[in-house]
Amino acid sequence: MSSSSSRTEQTFQILTALVDGPLHGYGIIQEVARLSDGRTELRVGTLYGALDRLSGEGLLVLDREETVSGRLRRYYRLTDAGAQVLAGEAERLARQAAVALERLRKRGAPRTSLGGTA
Hints:
Largest sheet: 3 strands, antiparallel
Order of helices and strands: HEHHEEH
Structural class: alpha+beta
Oligomer: single chain
């Protein structure tokens, strides 16, 4: 998927989860759930498929590995290219949201339904 194409919400959330620093797979799953207020639940298979794809695109890299209780944990880190793609996608989504909100305002939708106060 090229950086100019629209990305999935899951991909957007994974990249966002890694902004503050490296995380292992389960940490990414937890952070995505937190960031999305529980709306996005990543399954392990989906996550690791996305991590492989995003690594292949150079948007994240394997930061380190450690063994915990006999299990290998891989920590992934957002690259500068990944941060750039994430910023572009965030800007695109913000523009789309602004257009939708403006159209709703012109329609006369109640402010409370637009996230404002009544």
